Amino acid sequence: MIKVQVIIGTTRQGRFSEKAALWIYEEVKKKEGVEVELVDLRDYPLPFFNETVTPSVLAAGGGGYSNEMVKKWTEKIGEADGYVIVTGEYNHGYPAVLKNALDYVYKEWQRKAVGFVSYGSALGARAVEQLRQVVIELQMVPIRSAIQIPPQIFTAIREQAGQVNPELFKPLREGRVDKVEAFLNDLVWMTQALKAARVG
What we know:
Radius of gyration: 17 Å
CATH architecture: 3-Layer(aba) Sandwich
Structural class: alpha/beta
Order of helices and strands: EHEHHEHEHEEHH
Strand content: 15-25%
Shape: globular
CATH class: Alpha Beta
């Protein structure tokens, strides 16, 4: 059994990320041998990084976090074996709140798989490209597959009030390659392999 957290990577009002995260959460839940949890950055209102030492120093025995919310966040991240980060693209990059949440953690991210679901300008591809660099520095393993939500799906879903009809995401599974299945298979395989290596 592996545990995967789906992280809602934006916090603004009227965000699209929540709808996409709820959808991919249900898709991950269908995979055998996977426990999945939805993690919302709104539930972890972190201050902008202001610790006296970096998380990597803390991981090496340099003391503990001074902020209780940060302690709660790092403990939550430490519970998972792999992650799906759902992000929009803001001005050619990813949200500041997501960078801050990534930066507060070090040891708990290490040697774990991560995949990305994105949307926005250029389908969020530029945000994901930047995130790949960041997570590698955190010693995570980003999978090659990603889910990038095209404008026609984004628009149809954004205009829906309340619970989103999952059928609106169906085009992502159509065509020559089922992008959702490829993404999930890669994420599960890598998460299982890295967990086995960590505990082996």
